[in-house]
Design goal:
The chain is about 75% helix and about 5% strand. It contains 18 helices and 2 strands. About 40% of the residues are buried. A two-stranded antiparallel ribbon has the order 1-2. With about 450 residues, the chain is an all-alpha fold. It is globular and about 75 Å long. The longest helix has about 35 residues. It folds into 2 domains: about 350 residues, Up-down Bundle (Na+/H+ antiporter like fold), CATH 1.20.1530.10; about 45 residues.
Length: about 450
């Protein structure tokens, strides 16, 4: 009789904790922790030191000009360019071979994304028309895909079909694309044409390199940073756009087709087995050679775009976004600040994100299905889509980012950030209520 080994307390603890601190869920948890830490420091005795830390000046001299940065600006213009680069990679991947590659399946998330942008913008316009806060209309149009997917994952696969997550991802990709265009066209002033031409020259160098088959990621990184990012930064166009532009030039084709890859790997495995070693620690020299060939073949079978995206995603999720949260959510909350939540700027953001996103996505989906323009994703029911539409009201990362660009008045920036935090919490609450009472309880 086999004796079953009883799990230790440590093994049980790991079994509970490991799923929490893995993948999207861990990233969401870390973002929440970063926000809490920033708020605590900004409302503590170290508030002055905390704000001064992010405004520490950094001066970098280049042949093309001077880069006058602070730590805050380095995060928002530098690190966030990497975040936008991963967004660009995701957009390109989805258009080439993802949910946006087929117009029939892409139509519903595209239409819903448009509805989820127009409704929030209209809410904001209606409340802020004719005021000096009208420039903040871009703030409530954005969806934070990380938080939305984290919440859907927490609800569980039995209640949230994979097709719903795919729908939300596709919707967020289109949403991000619109947000990038809004930043490029509506939040850019005083363009320095020479620097912009330098950036596009670097971009065409990368496009040419892609065409002639150069796949080295370090080459693309060097030209992307020294050419495209620097050019955009000095031009006046927000430097994060450089990330999306660079992503367009990244190679997306494989050197080794799937069928040929399988055939080659089978031959190599056979060769490895034929030269099998009796040594239990080291492999033979011939086997080592085969292993190196397998590694090369594996690299050739994966597109550079996909490889780079996989490498960068943990860095973005576990460093870039938490750093952004730390640098941008340190609000000093006082009683008088809470009173600002009923002003047009705050109400425009809160109603735009919570109500505008929900109505824009839900009503557009209803209309598109009723007119037979699109179908609901397989296994997705209307209450599930409504819950996902509510979670789309979590603007956070992109909303805060646009808020930084929308206003020169620091008081407006702080007011916008507080409204975004409140709206995001409300969007979570609305989505949770919908799933609890119209999805989970119905299944019980």
């Amino acid at each position: 009789m086999v004796e079953l080994k009883q799990k230790t307390y440590w093994e049980r603890f790991k079994g509970v904790v490991t799923p929490i601190f893995s993948g999207e869920l861990a990233s969401g948890v870390l973002m929440v922790i970063s926000v809490i830490v920033a708020l605590l420091l900004a409302n503590s005795g170290w508030s002055k030191e905390f704000h001064e830390f992010w405004e520490y000046p950094l001066k970098i001299e280049l042949n093309t000009g001077k880069l006058n940065l602070t730590l805050h600006k380095l995060v928002n213009d530098g690190l966030m360019a990497i975040f936008f680069f991963t967004i660009g990679l995701e957009i390109k991947r989805e258009i080439i071979a993802g949910e946006l590659a087929n117009l029939k399946t892409a139509l519903l998330p595209i239409l819903c994304a448009v509805g989820g942008i127009l409704f929030p913008a209209l809410f904001y316009f209606a409340l802020n028309y004719g005021t000096d806060t009208i420039s903040g209309w871009g703030i409530p149009i954005a969806t934070d895909i990380v938080f939305a997917l984290v919440l859907l994952s927490m609800i569980g696969s039995s209640r949230v079909p994979l097709t719903l997550k795919i729908f939300v991802t596709a919707l967020a990709v289109v949403d991000d694309l619109f947000a990038v265009l809004v930043i490029a066209f509506f939040y850019t002033e005083n363009i320095v044409v020479e620097s912009l031409l330098w950036a596009f020259l670097a971009f065409f160098v990368l496009v040419g390199a892609n065409k002639i088959g150069i796949k080295n990621p370090f080459f693309y990184a060097a030209i992307g940073i020294l050419g495209i990012w620097t050019g955009f930064f000095l031009s006046g166009v927000h430097a994060t756009i450089a990330g999306v532009i660079t992503a367009i030039a990244i190679p997306a084709k494989v050197d080794l087709k799937e069928g040929q890859f399988i055939k080659n790997i089978r031959k190599l495995i056979d060769t490895f087995e034929e030269t099998q070693s009796t040594d239990t620690v080291f492999v033979k020299r011939d086997q080592l050679k085969v292993v190196h060939i397998i590694r090369k073949a594996t690299r050739k079978a994966v597109p550079p775009l996909q490889s780079i995206e996989k490498i960068l995603q943990p860095f973005v999720n576990f460093f870039v976004l938490p750093m952004f949260a730390l640098a941008n959510t340190g609000l000093t909350i006082e009683a008088e600040n809470l009173g600002l939540l009923v002003e047009p700027l705050s109400l425009g953001i809160i109603l735009g994100l919570v109500l505008g996103k929900f109505l824009g996505i839900s009503l557009t989906a209803k209309l598109a299905v009723a007119l037979h323009m699109a179908k609901l994703p397989k296994k997705v029911r209307w209450p599930q889509l409504y819950g996902a539409a509510a979670f789309a009201g979590i603007g956070f990362t992109m909303s805060i980012f646009i808020g930084e660009l929308a206003f020169e008045n620091e008081a407006y920036v702080s007011q916008a950030k507080l409204a975004i935090l409140v709206a995001s919490v409300l969007a979570v609450a609305v989505g949770a209520v919908i799933f609890q009472f119209f999805v989970i309880s119905k299944k019980a």
